[in-house]
Amino acid sequence: MRPALPWLILSLLTGTGGEGMCGDPPAAPARSIPAPRLSAEEQLSPHMPESLRCDACHAIAFQIEEQLSRAEGKVGKKVLRESDYMEVLERSCSQGWESYGVQELDGQKRLAGPGLPMQEPMSVMVTGGTWPSRLSKLCHGAVGERGEARVYGAHRRGPAALRELLCHGDKGPCAGGKAGGPPPAKALQNEL
Predict the structure, then answer these.
(1) Looking at the DSSP assignment, which residues form a beta bridge with residue 103?
(2) Which neighbouring-strand residues pair with 104?
(3) Which of 180, 88, 166, 99 minimizes the C-alpha distance to 132?
(4) Phi first, then psi: what are they for 164, rounded to 5°?
(5) Contacting residues for 154 by C-beta, under 8 A, at least 6 apart
(6) How confident is the model at residue 183 (pLDDT cuts 50, 70, 90)?
(7) Which of 24, 26, 30, 120 is 20 to 30 A off residue 140, Cα-Cα?
């Protein structure tokens, strides 16, 4: 028995010889979470893909709401002067947008980031690249098309009014058959 004692002490010190013994923690199953597969348009186009525009609009509305509320908080929740809210809107659209990206949830690609629903903790999000510039362009376009005064007025009525103006109105990316809404009625064509 004497020769086994040094071997036992040595194996305990080096951590060998005890593999598979009782009390070892079970091996954790390997999990693999793939990154979203992006089409050529999703990877390379300078424009936001049509399928993600509604999500992008909700992200934009959230960021505008946050920035305007913060600015109003600095002046005691008072109405901002035109020059102030125009500056805040410009800053909102020109921000980095680095915290947004694309996740694949149940086989469907969705924009993910602050203010957006359906955040999946166990998934891979593709960020950076063209996503920040796409969001910035879309934000500038939405604010410019609707006008700074209308955007600020909608903000003053509340977050739902701002989302309605930017995203769900007649020209909004979430209106009608866009991004999961009901399909628009087919327009009749004049045939000669």
Answers:
(1) 110
(2) 109
(3) 99
(4) -60, -45
(5) 161, 162, 164, 165, 166
(6) very low
(7) 120
Q: Are 148 and 85 in contact (CB under 8 A)?
A: yes
pLDDT computed for residue 127 by the predictor: 75
> Residue 162 is which amino acid?
L
Name the residue with tokens 């009625």: 185
Q: Output DSSP code: residue 49.
A: P
Number of C-beta neighbours around residue 106 at 10 A: 7
Beta bridge partners of 112: 101
> What is the token pair recorded at 72?
């109003």
How far apart CA 36 and CA 104 sit, in angstroms, is 5
Reported as a single tens digit per residue, the pLDDT across 65-112 is 999 999 999 988 789 999 999 999 999 999 989 999 888 877 788 898
pLDDT at residue 178, as a whole number: 47
Q: Using an 8 Å Cβ cutoff, are 115 and 178 in contact?
A: no
For residues 34-56, give the mean pLDDT.
Answer: 81
Closest-CA residue to 154 (of 174, 169, 176):
169
According to DSSP, the residues that pair with 105 across neighbouring strands are 108
In the chain, the amino acid numbered 158 is G
Q: How far apart are CA 69 and CA 96, in angstroms?
A: 19
pTM of the shown model: 0.72
Pair 159, 61: CB distance under 8 Å: yes
